[in-house]
Amino acid sequence: MSTNENTEHTLKKSFKPSQAWALALGAVLGWGAFMLPALRFLPQAGPLGAFIGFFIGGLILIPVALCYGNMVSRYPVAGGAFAFAYVGFGPTIAFICGWALVLGYICIVALNVTAISLLSRFMLPGVFEFGFLYSIEGWDVYAGEVGFLVIITLLSGYLNYCGADLAGKIQVVLAFILVTGVILLFLGAYNAPTASMTNLEPLFRYPDKPLTCILAIVAIAPWLYVGFDTIPQAAEEFDFSPSMAAKLMISAILVGAFLYGLVTFSIALVMPYLELLMLTVPWHTGFVAKTALGSLGSIILTFAVLAAIFTGINGFFIATSRLLFSMSRARVLPSWFMAIHPVNKTPYRTIIFTTAFVCIAPFFGRQVLSWVVDMSAVGTVIAYICTSVVCFKSNTPDLPHAGRNKLFGVLGAIGGFTCLLLLTLPMSPAAISKQSWWILFGWVGLGVIFYFAKAKEFTNIPTKQLTEYILGDKDKKVYFSSKK
Known about the structure:
Blueprint: H1 3-8, H2 17-28, H3 32-35, H4 37-45, H5 47-74, H6 81-89, H7 91-123, E1 132-136, E2 139-142, H8 143-161, H9 164-190, H10 210-218, H11 221-225, H12 230-233, H13 245-269, H14 273-278, H15 284-293, H16 295-329, H17 348-360, H18 366-394, H19 402-424, H20 434-458, H21 463-471
Antiparallel strand pairs: 1-2
């Protein structure tokens, strides 16, 4: 690829630090923070067990974030873990890493879109539930709801199509609404007439041991905090020093952990949380907000949840489109995906593809998508492990702070392998379901077919040329042996 051609396929630098941070926080703190306190966090761990679990899970992932930060500072290009895997291991492992991530990212967009249907069924019951089509795993699919979600998806795609700068500005506003909504929810719950610290008892799920309760939350840390790695995907568009990336990711994880805990505490404060869990209400968080603040509470919660959903959609839209774009530049995917809009300077074809794919999601129902996203957590952890190992491998003694970065690599890999075991061992509280395993096997099989269909092309590209495709500079140092 010539210098001119390489420039034509380089993204515009437009992301500010505040936009990158909002990108990560919004992706970390999604709809689950409001839907799962009474469905999973409190029943499995209790209030204090959940709160401790959130922070330990976040701390486990901080070395991983430091590894990402180290790699971004040296290789500030689109693609994130895909590009880093190439640096350390070459094109085949890079393909595996990219393939593991791409379905996960795009399905998290889809899951956030369909979460709007959960909110609409609570806030506007019956409004969009017309034109019954069919049921999938207990979830009723309606034409009205599908149409509504498709419109939202098209709007989200259009905003990303118009430019990263616009998407980043919108992300900052949504993140502010999200954080403000969580704080107001907590203040309302804390000042409710029935609020009492005794409502938090038992602090841990009875009769389980505290450690068991904490591990039940730690085990799902990859799912809770997936999204901090959206920052490396947009590294090529940073309008600031890439060395800031690590601080932005770590602060997003820690603030996300605190906000997860704040929402969960809010749910447990208003009435004895064991009694709350036994109530037959469609949405416990909504019930608490209305109990604590009346109709105003419902409005505040609605804005907070919508902000959480749309920041998740926007964040993973950016991550998905940049990953596909980077894989296309590497000739792993068809060159059609490589095009950059002449005016907006966005990878507009990958955005169009992502939009079209997500528009199909509402037809499958929530449960099927949940299986896919559970499976995709395995792919995310694989990317964490790969990045951590590459960080360890590539920090040779001639580089600044090599010893420290190698330590981060070891700790990140240990954290990643721990999360992988928690996701895959049958006795783990976070083990993925049988249905998720079948989807995982299917995706791996499809990847094998796709790899052998494309392998001859991209694995036979001379290393210097492939390095320029992926890293933007043929002289960038890579750490794998090659005869090409």
